[in-house]
Amino acid sequence: MGGLVGAGCGITSLLFYTHGIFVVSISNDMNWSRGAVQFGFTLMSLMTLVTAPTVGWLTDKYGARIVALTSLVGMMIGCVALSLTGDTITSYYMGWILVAILGAGTLPITWTSIINHWFTKNRGLALGITLSGTGIAASIAPAYASWLIAIFDWRSAYLLLGATAIAIALPIVYVFFHSPNTPSDNKTGGQSSLIETGLTLRAALSSYKFWILAVSIFCVAGSISGLITNVVPLLIDKGITVKEASAFAGLIGISVIIGRLGIGYLVDRIWAPFIAALFLSMPALGALLLMGAALETSMISLSIILIGLAAGAEIDLVAYLSSRYFGLKSYGKIYGVLLMVFSVSAGLAPTVFGMSFDHYGNYGVILPIAALLSFVGGALMLFLGAYPQFDVVTQPYDTPLES
User: Fold this and answer.
1) Handedness of CA 341, 305, 253, 129 (dihedral sign)
2) Phi and psi (nearest 5°) for 10?
3) What averages of pLDDT result for each successive group of 10 residues across the chain (403 residues)?
């Protein structure tokens, strides 16, 4: 429960899935191009070059709970900064940078770290349930953000969005989000704790499987992120109202939930890279469907569902595959680096999509590229090979642990 709510209120869910709603409003209000507005989110994602590995290190050293609680407050401060955007676009960009730094601990590293330590046999499903919080956010947040913008304005909407998130998440995370590897949480009388084994970050970086996973993630994340953050502007350009486009965007959230739970169930039973290849290539068809000049409701719905299913699979699969192929010894650091790759690609994509629109006046050039990236990224997963085996050992609490 703590991880589910926290993941749904983090920067990679709440701000990501509402970004497309804000783009048109900010662009029209401030007379900034869509590419320039999208670059704010890109800045936040590029900051993960520093923040993701740092959060991974802090999580391994101090625990995910304190990192998550601190960053929920930090994310709210970042939303306040966005609401105070001035007349210059620099102030808007500074707001996104603050969100990236202060809210970094709400990245999936923290939520998946504790879940991976609690669950082994049904780890995939546990991760799917936890990260389905992002799907819930994707279902509700776009319509909520659209309503806030209509009633107030986009600045107030950012402020109220952050306030809503912290009001919901902070108490639930505080009460429920705990690591199992502490004496107070140990169910066997506080006499021992689990020591997870696996590869160090250096060893993982020397593995070809790490780089296959990284390249695959880079391709897929860019495709999915670009499509999700631009689907509302794309539909508006085709004559659909903002309200109707927001309703269609809500389908992404439902699909994300289905994707997360379905992926979680399947990877516990079937070789995960096969499932990854199947789901992560779905946006290829979704992107091609969106290229139609006059889109029917059924075609729009199908394309968004396909994109949403893949979005529901990506973060879960990165977390699951990281734990299975590299173990949990340095999970925070390894996942932090992979999440950095994911975030850089996901952050660059909205700006690239926006610049493509600014240059060509439509999305006709960038959509086929997104389709190709999705297909290549999914296919690469098939080259990961068999899972390695990592033992789990037990050690008394009064025995010093190696750092």
Assistant:
1) negative
2) -85, 175
3) 91 83 87 85 83 84 89 93 91 92 88 85 86 83 88 92 92 90 43 60 90 94 88 82 76 83 87 92 91 76 90 82 86 82 83 85 89 94 87 46 39
Rounded-to-integer distance, Cα 197 and Cα 195, Å: 6
CATH number of 2-396: 1.20.1250.20
* E strand or H helix at 393: strand 392-396
Q: What is the DSSP string of 11-62?
A: IIIIIHHHHHHHHHHHHHHHT--HHHHHHHHHHHHHTHHHHHHHHHHHHHHH
Distance, CA of 232 to CA of 137 (rounded, Å) = 16
| 398, burial (CB in 10 Å: exposed 0-12, middle 13-18, buried 19+) | exposed
Q: Going by C-beta distance under 8 Å and a sequence separation of 6 or more, which residues neighbour residue 264?
A: 124, 125, 126, 127, 128, 129, 316
Residue of 99, 95, 101, 86 whose CA lies nearest to 32: 86
Q: Which residues pair with 392 in a beta bridge?
A: 196
Residue 317 belongs to what H/E stretch? helix 297-326
- Cβ count within 10 A of residue 168: 15
3-state secondary structure of 196: strand
Type of residue at 52: A
The Cα-based distances of 293 to 235, 363, 371, 402 in angstroms read: 11, 11, 17, 61
Cα separation, 374 vs 379, whole angstroms: 9
Question: DSSP strand E in 249-326: where?
Answer: none
Contact 146, 243 (CB under 8 A): yes
Asked if residue 129 lies in contact with residue 260, where contact means CB atoms within 8 angstroms, the answer is yes
